Amino acid sequence: MLDAQHSLTSKTITMKATLQFDPSKKPLTPKQHEFLIFLKNFVEERGYPPTMKEMCDKMEMSSTNAANQYIQALEKKGYLHRQQKGASRGIQILDFTPRPRHISPTNTHNSSTMNHYTAPMHSAPIQGTSHTSSSAPLPASVKNVVISGEGTAAQPLSVFLSPRGQVKIDTEFFRQNPTSQLFCAVVSDDGMSNDAIRQGDTVLARQQFGAEEGEIVVALLHDMTIVRRFAAASNELIAGVRGFPPVPYSADSTSVKIIGVVIGLMRLV
Question: What pLDDT, on a 0 to 100 scale, did the predictor assign at position 112?
Fold first, then answer.
């Protein structure tokens, strides 16, 4: 077993996971070992695989092409599988089951319009090859909800094709019909921090491609997922914090698209 504390570049990256050599698979180079361990650590800590940009930032790679080459090498040697080519969030680490994560209560101060929930975070199918449970059958109101992945405003449904993961949600708690199309999204910035929605939070949204005045929405701005308040009078998506410019909105735009209305908030601690 190899302790995972290497340095891919001059910057030391401390890894927690360990890599068990598998005689049934082709051996990896030291850098491939380190890259795989980084992926495992990221999934265990966050509950979903990293994006190409996150891979490059953490491993100090010069381009996404370098990260893609590592993914291709690990896939070819039987350590990874991608459900959709080119989608880093669709990575499945084979023969690996991450430790379960939990969503904990939030400590927000301005949440009169938000529901807050504490629920177990379950590994998505893309993160491991097996998941077992000995618990009793769940009520009909509890459903698996995907955490949206990468996508573009031009193809808004693409965020649901390679999800980051999934979480079980009790629709009764959020006063939603069990047949409602719900999804989760990870907040990408602090543009709504004055509304107690912070970067890294997970919002629960009802899937719909429009909104009413004043509703907080999940939207795709080019290839970035943002959370903003919809201003119907000016047709803009507005942040609650200065420094985040309003985003002009049009229902037929291919650069910005509303994909859901926020109905709840969860936070990992």
Answer: 40
Nearest-5° Cα angle at 177, 174 to 179: 125
Question: What's the pTM value of the predicted model, to 2 decimals?
Answer: 0.53
CA distances from 21 to 24, 79, 100, 101, 266 (A): 9, 11, 23, 26, 37
Mean pLDDT, residues 108-126: 38
The token pair at 70 is: 């590592």
In this structure, the number of other CB atoms found within 10 A of the CB of residue 190 comes to: 17
Q: What does CATH list as the number for 101-266?
A: 2.10.109.10
What does the alpha-carbon distance between residue 251 and residue 140 come to, in Å, rounded to a whole number? Answer: 34
What whole-number percentage of the chain has pLDDT above 90? Answer: 30
| Mode of pairing for the β-strands spanning 236-238 and 142-147 | unpaired
CB atoms within 10 A of CB 36: 23
- Exposure string for 69-102, b = 16+ CB within 10 A, e = fewer: ebbebbbebebbebeeeebbbbbbbeebebeebe
Q: Torsion over CA of 198, 201, 206 and 212, rounded to 10 degrees?
A: 0
| Cα(247)–Cα(17) distance, integer angstroms | 41
CA distance 68 to 174: 39
Q: Structural domain boundaries of the chain?
A: 2-93, 101-266
What type of residue sits at position 76? K
In angstroms, what is the C-alpha Rg of the chain? Answer: 20
2-93 folds as: Arc Repressor Mutant, subunit A (1.10.10)
Cα distance between residue 49 and residue 223, in whole Å: 17
